[in-house]
Amino acid sequence: MPPTAGLRERKKQRTRDTIVRKAMALFRKRGFDATTVADIAAAADIAPRTFFAYFETKEAVVFHDFDAIRDRFAERLRARSADETTFDALRAWVVEWLEEEDLLSPQHEARHELVRTTPALQARERDNQAAFGAIIAESVAGELGVPVDSLRPRMVGAAAVSALAALDHADAAALEDPVAVVDEALAFLQGGLDVLRRRPAPSS
Amino acid sequence: MPPTAGLRERKKQRTRDTIVRKAMALFRKRGFDATTVADIAAAADIAPRTFFAYFETKEAVVFHDFDAIRDRFAERLRARSADETTFDALRAWVVEWLEEEDLLSPQHEARHELVRTTPALQARERDNQAAFGAIIAESVAGELGVPVDSLRPRMVGAAAVSALAALDHADAAALEDPVAVVDEALAFLQGGLDVLRRRPAPSS
DNA sequence: GGGCATGTTTGCAGCGACTGCAACAATGCG
DNA sequence: CGCATTGTTGCAGTCGCTGCAAACATGCCC
């Protein structure tokens, strides 16, 4: 017997999975906005009202696994060893994460496409990214011994998150070696942005 | 006679101002969510349906001046002189902007408080910040001679925007000299983040 | 000043996300 | 088998937002 809990729990989990699966299928076929909660409920064979016992909003279905990922990430950063910087831990986490998640899988593709083409979902995604940024900022702030909401940790968090976002964004070559993208990003952050020094006046 | 256009235009502008004023007053008093569009319409003495001829969404009222600011900013960056870096132009723009906008005015205070306490508005604000980030990224990309959506411009844009956001966020001292905040941020970006080098193992 | 084109305001009906509530059903447990 | 707990459902309602078509105002030309 698997280490599952009571029958009740398993049933709930199965229902939840069904909702996600059917909903995503509908989103893919008709688009996010054109799919109503009633449609999803019908497809998952539950009452419309019941949908909201499983997900707070229609959007939440698309990001059903975000909370878990975020929490694991926060835990990973918090539990890093004493000689490990935030950046070390961040890089390690990305590597781990990429090992178990195939960014090229049809599911990831479809989800990404959906988010990319739906404003409401983009907004939600930015929320999620902001949460990641805050976690990184918190860790960096601890490292620097400054307040969590001070300037530099926030900037580092924002920049790091935009680098993570570039992973999804990578349009071809990069996906072959996503870790390289991360390394470039971290090197860029650490090395400074002095690519932006004064530019020469036009040679005329 | 002022250089105003026809009577029609002026009337529309007055109605628009009235909506903004009355809506903000209601938001402050009752909160954003607790204020309905019907309430705003009643306060501004228009039909509920008419509200949507002026603003696409209830949220748009809070950010009624964003589009103009963003466009002016984009224009400023695009029109910068040949020996001016993106960072130079960014700094100059902030200085200009701070001269005409008083961040400590009751209006800014109230608006900021509203955004800070309303999730829906925070999401919208992130949209706006993302727009700024994209503009900065575009400019930086041009400077570096790389594609607009490549890694480094995006990171710079994100970091710069988070520095701008820190301006709003500044809870006391910083507001006395906001330009100093910007200078610190830009110096940080340019100088690199090597505050984050490997941290010493505990001396044990 | 009398029309006429054009732009604005309004009411109405309707959709869809989401909520509170109360009845009902299933489950877990002694 | 009964009982408490937890999950499911239907109902009625609120609110943001939209399409449509009828009234209404304005600018303009004759």
Summarize the SSE layout with pairings.
The structure is a homodimer of 204-residue chains.
Chain A: H1 7-30, H2 37-44, H3 48-54, H4 58-62, H5 66-78, H6 86-100, H7 106-117, H8 119-144, H9 151-169, H10 173-176, H11 178-191
The structure holds a DNA duplex (30 and 30 nucleotides).
Descriptive account of the structure:
2 copies of one chain form a homodimer. Chain A is elongated. In chain A, 72% of the residues lie in helices and 0% in strands. The first copy, chain A, is mainly α. Chain A has helices at residues 7-30, 37-44, 48-54, 58-62, 66-78, 86-100, 106-117, 119-144, 151-169, 173-176, 178-191. Residues 194-204 of chain A have low confidence and may be disordered. The relative contact order of chain A is 0.08. Chain A has 11 helices and no strands. In chain A, helix 5 packs parallel to helix 8, helix 6 (86-100) packs antiparallel against helix 11 (178-191) and helix 8 crosses helix 9. The interface between A and B is large, with 47 and 47 residues. Chain A binds a DNA duplex (30 and 30 nucleotides) through residues 6-8, 11-12, 36-38, 46-50, 52-53, 56-58.
Q: What is the helix fraction of residues of chain A, given as a range?
A: over 70%
Roughly what fraction of the amino acids of chain A lie in strands? under 5%
Mean of residue pLDDT values of chain A = 87
Number of strands of chain A: 0
Q: Please give the most extensive interface between any two protein chains, plus how many residues each contributes.
A: A-B, 47 and 47 residues
State the assembly state of the protein chains: homodimer
Shape type of chain A: elongated
Q: Give the CA-CA distance, first to last residue of chain A.
A: 79 Å
Largest sheet of chain A: none
Number of helices of chain A: 11
Radius of gyration of chain A: 21 Å
